[in-house]
Amino acid sequence: MSDTATGRPKALIMISSARQVPLAEPAGTSFSSGFFLSEMGPLLQDFRRDHDFVFATPDGRPPQLDVNGLFLAGYATPDERAEVDAQAAAAQSAADFDAEALRRDNPELVARRDRELQTAYDLIGRITVSEILPGTEKEVASIRDEVAETFQKLPAQEWLSAKDLIDRDRDPADSFDLGEFAFVHLPGGHAPVVDFGDNPYLGELLNTLHDKGVVVSMICHGPLALVSTKYRVTDDGKVTTGGDRPLAGAHVTTLAKQLEQSSADASKGGYLAYLAIPGKHTRLIEYVEDRLREAEYQVDVPAVPTDPLAIYDEDRNLLTGDGPQAMAVQTAQLRTILAQTKAPKSANSPAP
């Protein structure tokens, strides 16, 4: 889709709008959550040079940023990660923890995070930020209020819902066409557990985008939306599960269950076990890797859960990444896919 004012291609960014995610244990509890900026920040920075964005959520409510996704080690390259993890873990456990000292020791990581935040301020507008959890990394906790206040000073923008997008695409009086988007990207964070995995209109949206040749990109918990593609929604709003399922059985990756479990494991010493409730056994309500396998997707995760992995299922025009560590690789791969899609056919190629 090209913006009539700028002539630039458009991309759709679909973000979960959930703000509280339930836990299986302790029963009846939930935690403040949202989307991880690091799972779309590099993509927004790269593609804003030559694309315009349309932002949407499943229900049209503004999303919430999960502050836990801003931890400095999350901005380390794979080669840097082990050293930064060890440094951050030691700093976190120190009685005289000094957030400024940790930032001074990691100026490039701070700069990468600042660039992503500035991009979000520029493009997303006013949103809320999740609350600090008992296990939130201390350096992240120290910047939470400043980030939240900055977002609150920004102008609010319109957020379309999945239903809005479908209705506009089907309205003969509206020139809007889902098929004109260059790509759609769905970031993760824990929030998609609430509104991505059993959502008929989100499923219909992804099926329609695929049917119209749009590249579908997802990362971390974002691929939960594939579970919803079992649904189709008719023009009169009837939800069915017996229609065409073009994305069924795709080869994908997602956040490894092992890494997801560690976020609620207090035995990890507190560093990055941000979901662990002190003195309680904490268990997530579901794991995206399990949900995708149960839905009969072909799921691969890296042997080392923090290693970056991106998988492109060419037959289904579907690109998935395993977590924020894969975002740079996934962004570059998306560029390549789009360039190949737009490349002119050879003169010797057979006619379609």
TrEMBL record:
Top-level lineage group: Bacteria
Query: What InterPro entries has UniProt attached to this entry?
Result: DJ-1/PfpI (IPR002818), Prot/Nucl_acid_deglycase (IPR050325)
Listed A to Z, the keywords are: Lyase, Stress response
A Pfam family annotated for this UniProt entry: DJ-1_PfpI
For the keyword Membrane, the answer is no
| Positions of the DJ-1/PfpI domain | 178-231
Query: What is the protein named?
Result: DJ-1/PfpI family protein
